[in-house]
Amino acid sequence: MARFLNLPLASFVCVGSVLSACGNKGPGEPVATLQTHELPTGPLEELYKDIEIQAAERSFLVDDCDTTYAETKLRLAKFIDTNLGGVTQAVGDRSETPTTPTPGAARTLGPVKVRARVALESSAPRWRRDSSDTWPELDAYRERVEAFIAAKDFASATNHLQYLDYILRAKIPDEKRRRIFGANYELREDNLADFQSLKRGIDECVEDASCFPSDLQKRLTAAPLRILNETKLYASLSKWTLETTGPAQARKRLQTLKLWVDGDVNFVSPRRTEAVKRISSGIFEVALQAGALVGIETEVADFIAEIWSPPGRQIRVRWTENLAEIDSLIPFQFDLVKSQGRGYVSYTEKKIVLPQVIQYATLHHELGHVLGLPDSYYMTFDSKTCTYTQHSQAKDLMSSSSSGGVLDEHWSALEALY
Fold it and tell me: Crossing angle, helix 135-150 and helix 154-179, to 10 degrees?
């Protein structure tokens, strides 16, 4: 599962006196941010220090728990940097670790190993919620590693250190999106419609030259108005739009508010891409360039068809030898992640990037993004525990790459787009 790459997301804006960290810079606008699910590389301590430095300049995005656990994060990062290489070397000095097959691997697609599909239980709930480890839990995990090192159990220490290293690196994209770029982590499956209603209300107000922030407050119904005035980030922005000195400034600040809300709502909204065209009802063609999967195009197309070509419907793959436009279609190219991480799609680079080990439907999920479908999972943040919770649907391909499939709503979205 991977979110879109290079969608416009809210970034940094100074909101008058509400945001003391802004000084005299004045209001700014959100900027496009680079979202990738390739795990960040480099020393963890430096990566987390960089987040703290940038977040300090955006204090209105920081929660109390970020301050509470700042030292814990840096302590964990430094501990991993200091010990991971050493204990791994110690294991290597003791004995060679034999190469084992990928757990659950069902097949290979050239350089990519594909895990077996996860079977769904009929009683499984529609929505699944998975919360991340808390920082105190991770710190307790660090203490266990220290005990393994003291006992010279370097194999166990390595396994635990590698787990901690992965968890801390996996948190970095969300930490940046929330604390630096200002993405709204209160959007979820049960309030998406209200966020969309808020976006429509703001769009209508922006298009109406006689509409000002005070008018927007009166036009919105209760639910979207509550989101505007009570969610952490939007509340500051809403107050800021009302603190204006004249009509021109009020309209400009309304435009800025629109950019922030657009970034959050567009993140979970379908979008048309130049790689796809509709052939007929239920039949679509997508242009792809094999790239890292060259030589196995037929095998890849057959694999795609296992999910994307149910009876009466079809996604046809049109392979191209290069990235040049073909019959008005601009192809996407397959590439491999250079480090650990999850697959993702880059709209600017026109790439489908896959790790070397994928879940059964990872390729199908990323192809869904090329077709224009958004992720249908949500990440929320608990400001009391500083933890993230992912809300996902096991039966939905755009929510779960291990067990999901294509739903009727996906085909309806494609028919509406093309």
Answer: 160
Residue matched to tokens 């195009």:
297
Instruction: With CA atoms as reference, report the closest residue to 273 among 372, 350, 366, 348.
Output: 372
Would you state the structure tokens that stand for residue 188, as one six-digit string?
């979820």
Taking the C-alpha atoms of residue 368 and residue 65, their distance in angstroms, rounded to an integer, is 36
Residue ranges per structural domain of the chain: 192-266, 276-417
Check residues 15 and 65 and name the one with the higher pLDDT.
65
Pick the CATH number of 276-417 from 3.20.20.370, 3.30.70.360, 3.20.20.150, 3.40.390.10: 3.40.390.10
The model's pLDDT over 18-30, given as tens digits with 9 standing for 90+, comes to: 333 333 333 445 5
DSSP alpha helix (H) spans, 17-69: 44-56, 64-68
Helix (H, G, I), strand (E, B) or coil at 334: strand
- The residue among 204, 251, 196 whose CA lies nearest residue 228 is 196
- pLDDT of 303 > 50? The answer is yes
**Mind listing the pLDDT tens digit for each residue in 208-223?**
999 999 999 999 999 9
Residues 6+ apart with CB under 8 A from 227: 186, 191, 194, 195, 198, 234
Q: Is residue 374 helix, strand or coil?
A: coil
What is the mean pLDDT of the segment spanning 326-354? 87
Strand extents, DSSP E, 53-97: none
Helix (H, G, I), strand (E, B), or coil: what is residue 279?
Answer: strand
pLDDT, tens digit, for every residue of 95-122?
A: 443 344 444 557 899 999 999 888 877 6
Q: Provide the token pair at 266.
A: 């567009």
Query: Three-class SS of residue 417?
Result: helix
- Concatenating the DSSP letter of every residue in 134-162 gives PHHHHHHHHHHHHHHHHTT-HHHHHHHHH
Tell me the C-alpha distance between 374 and 267, whole Å.
Answer: 7
